[in-house]
Amino acid sequence: MKNVVILHSDIMPDAGEDELDCLRQADTVAEALRLFGYDPVFLPFVLDLNQTIKAINSLRPEVVFNLVETVNGKGSLIHFAPALLDHLDIPYTGCGTDAIFLTSNKPVAKEIMAQAGIPTPAWISSSGICTGEAPSSTYLLKASWEHASVGLDENSIVNLDDKIDIVALMNKRRKQIGGPCFAEAYIDGREFNIALIAGKAGVQVLHPAEMQFIGFGPDKLKLLDYRAKWVEGTFEYENTTRTMDFSSQDDRLIAGLQDIAKRCWDLFGLHGYARVDFRVDKNGNPWVLEINANPCLSLEAGFAFAVEKASLKFCEAIELIVDDALKRYKSFR
Length: 333
Description:
Blueprint: E1 2-9, H1 17-34, E2 38-45, H2 49-59, E3 63-67, H3 80-88, H4 97-104, H5 106-115, E4 123-124, E5 130-131, E6 138-143, E7 157-159, H6 166-177, E8 181-185, E9 189-199, E10 202-205, E11 209-213, H7 226-230, H8 235-238, E12 240-243, H9 251-268, E13 273-281, E14 286-293, H10 302-309, H11 314-331
Helix pairs in contact: 1-11
């Protein structure tokens, strides 16, 4: 059998649901890989790089399936995994080091998109510099690096009409979530995400999904926050749903979102698989919230649903991702 290492985050015993999900993804990917003759071995990526290098070299994998989302619990170190695999000259799935670094640093990604003419909501940096024109005075304090809506809740909402010290608030929030923050203008409207995968004939832009917020009153912002994603039993979790069914009236909008998603793929040099998150304002204008390199591969996540909508079996999508990694590796040799 062909040897493959499933490299995943080193999950602490007290980890939250967002980090534990990495292990569920590893199990799902392993099951798919076995169908294609691979012998998957699970390996946590630890911050002791010498230890990680020794473990990888001892396994001598043909390819590494990179599922690392955090290192030592920090999303800001996510690029350590592809960087180390580049150093070891081992083929690995998904996006490369540069793409992982640039897309995971959300303010940097927004700056690159803005310069390329891709619409993204206005934002305020940790130093207080405002970029872009905001459609309203409502902002969200977001973690600059962390994924999975870590730190995003009702306490993240800020109204600049209150003449508050936004920098002081971001510094306070930084202490609470353990990392830098930025403030992003809230776009009141519909929320979409579009998954992409490296197909045999090039990147394939998959069918969009729309997140629907059921029963959210006018005083409650429609947010896909931490509770909506991870905390079962909460109002947010139970009343946030996904749909992939649209009327013909949305055809033009969907085509536009897919075009922007493809532009993001090309702009950041993405590989393997990715997801682009959007808001569409009440005038029908799309705004890119963020780009997710190597998005969640659990069967309950949006990527798996998008793959199924494209008439691909999940295991076939995993095979495409591995094939892309091997093809990309060979092209550099």
